[in-house]
Write a structure and sequence with these properties.
The protein is α+β, with helices and mostly antiparallel strands and about 375 residues long. The chain is about 35% helix and about 25% strand.
């Protein structure tokens, strides 16, 4: 098990105007943004730049000029290999000269770029400037897919209850009202991020109760890939740390020209499977793991781990922590598969680098596939 911090980081950093209390209001926001957005592929050299006292404007992609946002300004500067941080420090008139020079004479000037902008008849902004093959997965698509999944399962997926009762039992949705402080649904001018859970179908294993959860994110303007992470967890605290997560799986799709098709082929079925999945296979797998003996001696368990691709040192640490029990989550029997998994994931939690820690946690959690099998 591990504690996931991604939701807490979002909760701590999002201003009020990026917070939404339900999927419906979030859908309306991203739909309106998509309806007002246009895309055009053209060479940068066909564009012109102007300025006023505080803003830069781009012309040539539509009938009127569009303001450069902070995000699109950085992308435009990157395309022409100009230092965006330096240009931002200059007066707008000087920044205009530098940016337009790059749009005329840089290597990228005559190559096609994809200009993504809003044009609602009142305010026009360049939202993104990317390569011509950027495959846009719209934020509105992601929200709609989550809403459809939720509606098809009786709206089981909700913003997580942010605490436990004093006695350690789960509070449940009946005592919780979502507001902008507690919500886990976010959207900015450059991304969306959603975290939902199913608290209606607890998974009880011995004296431990788990729930299903997922978070998903996207940026239609190039800030991030599309991603979907699914997991089981014990509870979510008030600052949105996800405690005792296990079975963590991730799907990521880069915004290449095939990204929209991959979203339809991979992400949409993944959401459907998540919503429809029974808790029974998970309960059975954990119970089988608790009944599976790997070897008669801890030393033989270490050798078994090494045959499965684990290093000698990490095998030894995992077995040692499984034998310790207590705060590792193990019952103290390193020859038992479930206890060994707890020891291994406890060892992984001591790894400082996030990617290495998550990789180690996944490899040890993956040993669950040997539950109920003849161990070799």
């Amino acid at each position: 098990m591990t504690n996931l911090m991604a939701a807490s980081a979002q909760w701590a950093s999002r201003p009020q105007d990026q917070r939404f209390v339900d999927l419906e209001s979030l859908q309306m926001h991203v739909d309106a943004r998509r309806m007002a957005s246009r895309s055009k592929v053209m060479p940068l050299s066909a564009l012109a730049v102007s300025h006023d006292d505080t803003e830069l404007y781009v012309h040539g992609h539509n009938g009127a000029g569009s303001k450069l946002t902070n995000w699109s300004f950085g992308q435009m500067a990157t395309l022409v290999k100009a230092p965006a941080s330096y240009l931002r420090s200059l007066p707008s008139a000087v920044a205009e000269i530098n940016l337009e020079y790059g749009m005329r004479f840089s290597d990228a000037a005559r190559s096609d770029s994809q200009i993504y902008y809003t044009d609602d008849g009142q305010v026009s902004e360049i939202r993104a400037a990317t390569g011509p093959k950027y495959g846009r997965i719209f934020d509105a698509q992601i929200v709609r897919a989550v809403r459809m999944m939720n509606e098809n399962t009786g709206n089981r997926w909700t913003v997580p209850t942010p605490f436990k009762k004093a006695d350690g039992s789960h509070l449940g949705q009946e005592g919780f009202t979502v507001d902008k402080n507690s919500t886990t649904l976010y959207a900015s001018d450059r991304d969306i991020w959603m975290f939902l859970v199913d608290e209606s179908r607890p998974i009880s294993i011995g004296d431990q109760t788990y729930f299903r959860g997922f978070y998903t994110w996207n940026s239609e303007v190039g800030k991030a890939t599309f991603g979907l992470a699914t997991f089981l967890y014990s509870y979510v605290c008030c600052n949105r740390i996800i405690w005792d997560a296990t079975e963590v799986e991730e799907l990521r799709i880069r915004h290449t020209h095939l990204a929209p098709e991959r979203f339809i082929q991979e992400a949409t079925p993944a959401l459907a499977a998540l919503s429809e999945a029974s808790t029974k296979p998970i309960e059975d797998a954990i119970r089988k793991a608790q009944e599976t003996k790997i070897a008669n001696k801890p030393s033989d368990v270490e050798k078994w781990l090494e045959r499965k691709g684990f290093g000698r040192l990490e095998s030894g640490v995992a077995v040692s922590l499984a034998a310790r029990g207590g705060d590792t989550g193990s019952n103290g029997d390193p020859t038992n598969l479930w206890d060994l998994i707890q020891g291994g994931t406890a060892a992984a939690r001591a790894i400082g680098h996030t990617d290495d820690r998550v990789d180690a946690e996944k490899r040890f959690s993956g040993l669950l596939r040997y539950a109920g099998q003849d161990i070799e």
